[in-house]
Amino acid sequence: xxxxxxxxxxxxxxxxxxxxxxxxxxxxxxxxxxxxxxxxxxxxxxxxxxxxxxxxxxxxxxxxxxxxxxxxxxxxxxxxxxxxxxxxxxxxxxxxxxxxxxxxxxxxxxxxxxxxxxxxxxxxxxxxxxxxxxxxxxxxxxxxxxxxxxxxxxxxxxxxxxxxxxxxxxxxxxxxxxxxxxxxxxxxxxxxxxxxxxxxxxxxxxxxxxxxxxxxxxxxxxxxxxxxxxxxxxxxxxxxxxxxxxxxxxxxxxxxxxxxxxxxxxxxxxxxxxxxxxxxxxxxxxxxxxxxxxxxxxxxxxxxxxx
Length: 307
Prior knowledge:
Elements: H1 2-18, H2 34-38, H3 42-49, H4 55-66, H5 76-86, H6 90-103, H7 109-115, H8 121-130, H9 140-149, H10 153-162, H11 169-178, H12 184-198, H13 206-213, H14 252-269
Helix pairs in contact: 3-4, 4-6, 5-6, 6-8, 8-10, 9-10, 9-11, 10-12, 11-12, 11-13
């Protein structure tokens, strides 16, 4: 088994030494070590990053160095920006753009924005994703333009997704326009971004979203009235789970008005008091006489006497 593993390792080393990477330029024999292939040290990673002669080593160095905490600081950020702007290989430019986005340093925001106009769609996609991580108001216009007009579906979808990290009416209007895109991937990302920005969901209907998108972002939905407020006298929210119990103390303005209505209703229902001498009040009727069909208010100690 060890012999087989050694043979495979030697074969991979030979392919790495003789093969081509991002470009067609062959790699010189001995430029790749077993350590760089299987367990590259920090020095190996940096060496690959700065090896301008071999694009594949540069691309791998970009991915490895930017995955390290120390790789998201200077002087490596400046190197990423240089590669993103000048390297002839799209795979290397894209890896550099991703590294800058991962760093989140707005110093290089203009490099990411310029990458949105790269000739390679794969680099434009990397830039759109990176601008969802490293944000700035300057990125809204170019991303909005590519969300609508880019000839790559993947780039349009990536722009629609990253725009959820930006605020403003222009962003929401762009996302509503994206709902009319012919590609479902773009419409899906646009809808998810609108939901994230507004706190509402109007599906895939652009007309329904026009009204929602015109409101302030994350506007709180209209309050549901409590179950006891049948008259709509208050806008107090019901309990978040279900309708919730009746509050122990109603708001003062509601309590005052409700008490007045209750008093007026009780006064209208109450019978006129008995003004005859010795007459009993309405409240002295027997408990069973709920309909008031009798006026028999004879005291209990006279109940047994004959008429």
